[in-house]
Amino acid sequence: MDTIYFIYSFIFGALVGSFLNVVIFRLPNEGESVIFPASHCPKCNTKLRWYENIPVFSWLALRGKCRTCKTSISLQYPVVEMAMALLSGALYRHFGPSFAAVQYFFFVAALLAIIFIDLHHQIIPDVISLPGIVIGFVGSFFNPLVSWQQAGLGILIGGGILYGVAVGYALLTGKEGMGGGDIKLLAMIGAFLGWQSLLYVVFASSLAGSVIGGASLLAQKKGSQTRIPFGPFLSLAALSWLFFQDGILAVWQWYLNGMHGLK
Asked: Of the candidates 150, 160, 172, 148, which has an alpha carbon nearest to the alpha carbon of residue 245?
């Protein structure tokens, strides 16, 4: 029975991933609905039939091309669908059939959408992060893993950390180095994961962002003109904390014990 529920959660995640693709492509376009019109080819506008809208399998069956105009269909479609399916299955394995699994399903779906929207447009829509803050905080009253006090402090500290960094950078350089979307995103992460997650999330995302961003700057040879979206790094760090918190804390304790032994 446990395997059956896992399969159900995997399939449901893939279906939600299909909707997330619509959100990712349409939400940044002002005035465009994520509900209407129905799924269609972005090139020839041909409406997709039901069997052309099956997550992952339809893309493979069509060989990544529109049935009508043969225009290539972005690889992002099956990637997002498979990613959400795997995340949904992982949530069931990690939390079982619980309120926490339901709450964090909304969380990981929001993070997945933010990752791709920020990569494409370098924005983090308020329509995702602001309701996310509310859902994370209200859910903390029912989630045994994070108390409402931890969630509330997570919102205040999470938003405050990046706001302070943004203000300090602007004062030192005279340029905006971090958008308000990143600030609201970290507040949302704090609401879902609690204030105790923020040190790791900020450290891990900054480290990954520095390494990958530095490599990108060298590869593109554009210097400081290249803008590196920070939202994906914050989101991936939050996901790693959600699923591997115990291991991360164990590594941290091992490091502290090692440092203590050197004294």
From this structure: 150
Q: Where are the domains of the chain?
A: 1-97, 122-263
113 SS3 class? helix
Nearest to 2 by CA among 74, 108, 97, 86: 97
Q: What is the pLDDT of residues 220-263, one digit of tens each?
A: 665 555 678 899 999 999 999 999 999 999 988 887 777 666 65
What gap in Å lies between CA 123 and CA 229, rounded to an integer?
8
For the beta carbon of residue 119, count every other beta carbon within 10 angstroms: 13
Report the mean per-residue pLDDT for the chain.
88
Three-state SS string over 71-84 comes to: CECCCHHHHHHHHH
What is the number of alpha carbons within 13 Å of residue 196 lying toward its C-beta?
A: 11
Q: Bridge-partner residues for 72, per DSSP? A: 65
Residues 93, 6: contact at Cβ < 8 Å? yes
Average pLDDT rounded to a whole number, residues 60-71: 86
Residue 71 contacts residue 41 (beta carbons within 8 Å): yes
Cα dihedral sign for 67, 68, 71, 74?
A: negative
Place of tokens 């447009």: 121
- Interhelix angle 180-193/198-220, rounded to 10 degrees, is 140
In the structure, how many helices (H) and strands (E) does the chain have?
9, 0
Distance CA(100)–CA(136), nearest Å, equals 11
Residues 235 and 115: their CA atoms lie apart, in Å, by: 7
pTM, entire model: 0.90
